Amino acid sequence: MQVFVLSSKGVLAGIILSAIFFAAKISKVKVTIHSAKGSNRKIYHVSGQFSLLL
Q1: What percentage of the chain has pLDDT greater than the value 90?
Q2: Phi, psi (deg, nearest 5) at residue 26
Q3: What's the predicted TM-score (pTM) here?
Q4: Cα–chain-centroid distance for residue 33?
Q5: CA triplet 12, 18, 21: central angle to 5 degrees?
Q6: Spatial separation of the C-alpha atoms in residues 37 and 15, rounded to whole Å
């Protein structure tokens, strides 16, 4: 029984890690930076598919 519990935890960890790496690989996030001449302000525009994993 103990081997089954350890095995199932390993499989679950592998599935979670695979999902995280797959999402990072296929996500396409584009960041553009705009700044006006004579100003030290920058505007960052982020577009694309992204999500937060908590």
Answers
A1: 0
A2: -90, -10
A3: 0.44
A4: 21
A5: 145
A6: 49
- In order of 31, 32, 35, 47, the CA distances from 39 in angstroms are 20, 17, 7, 24
Quote the tokens at residue 44.
Answer: 């960052």
Give residue 54's pLDDT band: very low, low, confident or very high (50, 70, 90): very low
Token pair in block for residue 14: 């592998």
Say which amino acid occupies 35. S
- Strand partners for 47: 30
- Domain extents in the chain: 2-48
Written as one letter, the residue type at 7 is S
Residue owning tokens 């553009």: 32
